[in-house]
Structures are given as structure tokens and as C-alpha cells.
From TrEMBL, chains A, B:
Subunit structure: Heteromultimer composed of HisG and HisZ subunits. Homodimer.
GO biological process terms on file: histidyl-tRNA aminoacylation; L-histidine biosynthetic process
Pathway: Amino-acid biosynthesis; L-histidine biosynthesis; L-histidine from 5-phospho-alpha-D-ribose 1-diphosphate: step 1/9
Protein species of origin: Lichenicoccus roseus
Taxonomy of the source species: Bacteria, Pseudomonadati, Pseudomonadota, Alphaproteobacteria, Acetobacterales
Localization of this protein: Cytoplasm
Residue span(s) of domain Aminoacyl-transfer RNA synthetases class-II family profile: 37-355
Protein name, entry field: ATP phosphoribosyltransferase regulatory subunit
GO CC terms, sorted: cytoplasm
Role played: Required for the first step of histidine biosynthesis. May allow the feedback regulation of ATP phosphoribosyltransferase activity by histidine.
Top-level lineage group: Bacteria
Gene this chain is encoded by: hisZ
Note: This function is generally fulfilled by the C-terminal part of HisG, which is missing in some bacteria such as this one.
This protein's UniProt keywords: Amino-acid biosynthesis, Cytoplasm, Glycosyltransferase, Histidine biosynthesis, Transferase
Family: Belongs to the class-II aminoacyl-tRNA synthetase family. HisZ subfamily.
Alphabetical list of InterPro entries matching this protein: aa-tRNA-synth_II, aa-tRNA-synth_II/BPL/LPL, HisRS-like_core, HisRS/HisZ, HisZ
Length: 387, 387
């Protein structure tokens, strides 16, 4: 390779890509479908900007994603701005400033692109779409339940009806370790062992706490069984409060969304950075990829809030495909009213800019499924022998 | 003011702002409405990333917007990336690379946010939404006409039926000045005089060309009259070719979209930087703000193309308002099927998370228009005397 070769203009930076037809339309329509379900449950849309001053973007819950934030200097103020890596802290900022006087519960929704400095290990994307809701004000099991039930309905509207919601309490393991007085020097290895769900290593590093931790590790699974284990476990009062709240939230979720697939992984904590209570990860059946995640946090530093953010790129991979829109090639002298009625009937009309002797062949060349003949759209069949 | 005061988290950099309810939803629904009209005419959506390597983002037609581009270093490759200030060069890149083998005419649509280093004089926004189409391949008047006709239908779908399309030939004035041999030292002042439409200054700096230039300045206005002046004017052969093509495009536009409000400003050139033929600016009636602009250019350096980009923020200001969605407050024990039927009927349902003795008062507090009573949504009237 020579340095003199011009760079390949088709080459995009790692983790950034072009969505081509039909994926770009499918993604956009899916996002609007999610937003329509959110709106039908009273969630009102906000649209924060792609860039903000670094100190507002990274304050509060935004601090957790500081190292994933690209920074730029604003030439007019010489202050640093950041490209948002996550929209939830922006929505929390709006709730705590411009909408501080709006009635609570405040229900907000949002959709947009975020940019992260580095892609993940499973998915390398650095530009990430988000579509989510935040329920700001109430700190009740019914609020947790609403967010999960509304997200579940939004996913169902895309044909994703068999998703599972995996609940977790990211504070539980650190709290047990703190309260058991595990020496600080042992904690990183113990946390790593818990993260890897390695029972032998947990036994090795967990001291007197090891039996309980391994019991909780084994509890991971369907919600009813996990709750039984948690109820029977010997917990400190503070841990018991967390578990009681989890139980109340599960009851509220099942009251609002009977039949939802709920699992609990009580000591999962990885990736939860600014959350203060129940958290949830959404998975498609049989897939390892997350469709979304969310949980309880403090908006503006002190206001209870709970939200869930879906990942449209992951939904695009998991959701059933959409039927392609039929395309009909029109001759140049087509009647405008007829063309309009075809569009209203769901066709994409493709205008010929010049007359063609063989309109059907031209339709095939242009990827049209239909051609206009005798005032009607007639399906064309691609010739297998060429012309 | 003290340096010790924490920065106001509500403060956003100049030209960047939060869209709040209901504007954020109105803008998003408007964009999807435009995209649906584009799709119904066979334009297929692409979604390029927000960031690209600088050398691909700023090559070709992108060079014209280089000084409006924020740059960032990609930490993994140490190469510079740019935040897109305009999507058209990205769509041209896709047409010239990933879609180089797709059949022509290639019809592409796109919608997304762009970031510019500096806001404009009329509108200070630095984050700009775009929604547009590009028709790549054909170099015919019918292609110019299609782009304008489809944009006009898209605007009409938002209730913007009385917009005007102002056509211009940004090459005409520079060509006449070049061919007339106006000394290079006089050209900047002459161009400035033309830009300001100052006939006295044009006479002063235009030499033997001044009468023709002032004739063309006066020609600006409704298309039919402007074309008469252009036909009668004494033009060089190259300029005559440009004008003949303009005339053919006007005929094709009116054939495809009879009744469209067309004006011509034959020597307007400002702001057209990578265009090679007919250009157009879209204005709402009685407003100075542009709703969009577009024109003919070379995609990938050598392929004829014509496009038009609408500005959703400007459409939001110009389009008639949408009716607010009715919101109904539901009691906590509402029947799920009833709630679902209300959403299907177009209501946003707002769930009470706890019982309320005065559901109607709570509905008013939450900005709901309706409350559920006897299984039906009943309008609530805000009390004027408080409670």
C-alpha cells in the first residue's frame, strides 16, 4: 500500500456506517412506531441537541459516560462542548431545568442518534440510535411497572412479542460486600468473580459471604423462582429493603402486563453506572443482543425517575422483516390523478423521464415490481433468460 | 458575576436548543410525512453517519462547506473526522460508491441532523435538520421538474400549498462577466452590486455589460415574464444555452405540476457553491425564510444529479399547527382492553399510579383534556376559580 493512493472514499471510520435501502427506511419507520406507542401512553417528545456544553452534558448522571464523549471547542465561547453519548442525561437535564415546573409525574420520550468514542465488544457501532421514555417524579413500583409495560407494548407493535425483561439490582452485591466487611483488597477480585458468575472464585474470595453470594448467583432465572430464593435468603435489613421493593415491582409489572417474560439476575451489576434501584435489560428470544435497557435513577441529582431506552439498530436485527412496498413504473404521459390514486393505494410510483419502447423491461431494470398497463398496476416478472 | 458560580445547566451553546412538547413531536411527524411522500414517488431512504473521515466528507461537493465543519480526531486511527454540515455530499458519496452499480435514475431520500460551526444571519441555528431527495443519473429538464414537483407535493402534505419556487442560474452572471472581459479588479465590486441588486452600482462597475445586467436584474419575478425578458436579451451562445435549458425546465415543471408558483431571479448566485445548473429556493408565502433549496450538481465529480433539501425547522414555523392529541386520565384499576381501545381511538392514555379522590382535578393538573367516567372519555373543563 502506497501513501500516495487517495483514501478510499467508501471507507468510513470503524463503528460508523451507511444504512442503505431498505434498512434506513425500516429503522426510521420502526422508531416512529415506537414513538407512536409512547405518545399513546402520554409520553411527550423532547429533542435535545446533538452537542451541549461539556459541563452540562457530563453533570449528574452524564458523568458516568464522560470517557465515551467526543469533545469539541465552541469557537464563539471557547468553551468545550461534547457530542452526546447518551440521551437520558439530556432528558433529565430538561426535566430539571426547562420543565422543572411541569406537573409530575412527567412523562417524556425521545429518539435520536448518539456518538460514543469507542464501540462495544459485541457490537462495534459508535453511532447508536436511541428511542426511549423517562417517567420522572414518582418512586413507586407502579412507575417501574408502567415503563416496562409501555416498552413491552412498543416492542410488540414491531412484532417483537416474545422478548424477555431481565431485572437486576445493581446495588445489591456491592451493598452485601460492604456490609459484610470484606477487605477492600479482596473486593475487585470478588466483583470480577461475581461478574463472571464463577462460583469457585466467589467461594475463594467471598469469605463468610460466599455461601449467600453463590445462592444468589444460582437464583438467576425466571422471576417467580428467583423471588423464592431471595425471600428465603438471609439478608441484612438494607438488602431486604431492596429485595422487598423488587418483589413489589414484579407484582406491579405482572398486574399491568400479565404474561410478560420476566427473569431476575439479582447480583448482575455490570454496565449500570448511575442507577439507584431496579434495573432492566431487554432481550429478544434466543439472542444475546440487548434490545434496550433502563432503570431507576435520580434526575437532576434528587428527583426519582425511571426510564428505558430501546436500541433501534438491535430491533432492526431482531424484528420480523417488513413487506417491501410495491413499485410501479409509470410512462411519461401518465394521468396525474391515476398516479396519485396508485400512491394512495400504497404503491411507490416511479416516473419514466423519457418514453421507453419496452416499459416492462425498464421496470425490471429499475427494480419495479409493477408496470402501468391499461390504467392498472400489473406485476412484472423478471425474465430468467435476459433479453 | 463570579467565576465560582456553577455554570447554568439550562444554558446551551448559541444556535443549539431543546425542542420541547409539542414542537419535538410536530417536527418529527412532519419529517416522516415528507419522507412518506418521497417514498411514494420511489425515493429510497439512505442514512449516512453523523461523522465521517474529513477527506471523504469534504471531497467533491463537500469542499464547499469545509469551513462550516467541526473536526474531531478518531482516537483509533488518529485520522481527522468531520461532523457533517450538510447531507447532500454524503448522499452523493453513497451514490458514487456503495450504490455505483444501482440502476439509474437513482432516487434517494434522507433525513437527519447536521451541525454547522456558525449559524446564519437570519437563523442562528447551528444544528439544522434536513429532509431531502436526490435524483442521480439523468440530466434532463424532466428530472429538474420531478424534484420540484415531488418537493411541492411533500410540502402540500403539511398544509404548505402556497409556497413559491424561485429558480436561478448561479452560473449566468459569472459567465457573462467572464465572457465580456470585465477586468478582474472590477469583478468583486460588480458581483457585490449584483448581489445587492443595486442598479446604480452595476452601471458604475459593469462597463459595456451594465445595460444587459440591469435588464436581467429587472427581469426577476414571475417565471413567464422573466422568460420573456431572457428570450429577448442579447446573450452570448453559452449564456443562451443556459437560458434555453431554464426555459425547457420551466415547461417541464409546469407540465408536471400545473399551477405551481414559479419565479425566476436569473442572476441570483449567492449561497450556491457546488451547483452546475438550475437552482431553486423554496419560500413560504409572505415570509423571508427559506423552506428549502436545491439544484443541479455533479455527484461523485462527474454524474449529473439534481436534488432539493427541505428545512424542517423552517417548515415548523411556516406550517399550520397540528391539532393537539386528546389526553385522558385513567384510574389505576382501569380495564386494559378499554384503555387499549381509547388509544386506538386516538387518545393518549395517562395512567394514574395511585388512586385519586378527585380524578377530574388530577386530570386538569396533569394537562389532560379528558377523564374516564362510566367507561367513556369525558372532557374536563379547567376550573377558573381554582379548587
Amino acid at each position: 500500500m502506497s501513501d500516495d493512493l487517495p483514501p478510499n472514499p467508501a471507507l468510513l471510520p470503524a463503528g460508523l456506517r451507511d444504512l442503505l435501502p431498505p434498512d434506513a427506511e425500516t429503522e426510521a419507520l420502526s422508531v416512529e412506531q415506537l414513538m407512536a406507542v409512547f405518545a399513546s401512553h402520554g409520553y411527550e417528545r423532547v429533542k435535545p441537541p446533538l452537542l451541549e456544553f461539556e459541563d452540562s452534558l457530563l453533570s449528574g448522571s452524564g458523568a458516568a459516560v464522560a470517557e465515551q464523549t467526543f469533545r469539541l471547542m465552541d469557537p464563539s465561547t471557547r468553551r468545550m462542548m461534547g457530542l452526546r453519548p447518551d440521551m437520558t442525561p439530556q432528558v433529565a437535564r430538561i426535566a430539571a431545568t426547562r420543565l422543572i415546573n411541569a406537573s409530575r409525574p412527567l412523562r417524556l420520550s425521545y429518539a435520536g442518534a448518539c456518538i460514543q468514542v469507542q464501540g462495544g465488544t459485541l457490537v462495534a457501532d459508535r453511532q447508536i440510535s436511541q428511542a426511549g421514555i423517562e417517567l420522572i417524579g414518582p418512586d413507586q413500583p407502579e412507575a417501574d411497572a408502567e415503563v416496562i409495560a409501555v416498552a413491552s407494548q412498543a416492542l410488540a407493535s414491531l412484532g417483537l412479542t416474545r422478548v424477555s425483561f431481565d431485572l437486576t439490582l445493581p446495588q445489591l452485591a456491592p451493598m452485601l460486600i460492604e456490609e459484610a466487611g470484606i477487605p477492600a483488597a479482596h473486593r475487585p477480585e470478588l466483583m470480577r468473580a461475581l461478574d463472571r458468575k464463577n462460583a469457585a472464585e466467589v467461594s475463594h474470595h467471598g469469605g463468610a459471604l460466599a455461601p449467600l453470594l453463590n445462592e444468589l448467583l444460582l437464583a438467576a432465572g425466571p422471576a417467580a423462582r428467583a423471588l423464592q430464593v431471595l425471600q428465603a435468603a438471609s439478608l441484612t435489613p438494607a438488602a431486604r429493603l431492596l429485595v422487598d421493593r423488587l418483589e413489589a415491582s414484579v407484582a406491579a409489572i405482572l398486574a399491568r402486563a400479565p404474561g410478560l417474560r420476566l427473569t431476575i439476575d439479582p447480583i448482575e451489576f455490570r454496565g449500570w453506572r448511575y442507577h439507584t434501584g431496579l434495573c432492566v435489560t431487554v432481550y429478544a428470544p434466543g439472542r444475546h443482543e440487548e434490545l434496550g435497557r433502563g432503570g431507576r435513577y435520580l434526575s437532576g441529582g434528587d428527583e426519582p425517575a425511571c426510564g428505558l431506552t430501546l436500541r433501534p439498530e438491535a430491533l432492526l436485527r431482531a424484528a420480523p422483516g417488513r413487506a417491501a412496498r410495491p413499485r410501479v413504473l409509470l410512462p411519461p404521459d401518465v394521468d396525474a390523478t391515476l398516479a396519485q390514486s396508485l400512491r394512495q393505494a400504497g404503491y411507490a410510483t416511479v416516473a419514466s423521464l423519457s418514453p421507453h419502447a419496452e416499459l416492462a423491461a425498464e421496470a425490471v431494470r429499475l427494480g419495479c415490481s409493477h408496470v402501468l398497463r391499461g390504467g392498472e398496476a400489473v406485476a412484472v416478472v423478471p425474465s430468467s433468460s435476459g433479453d
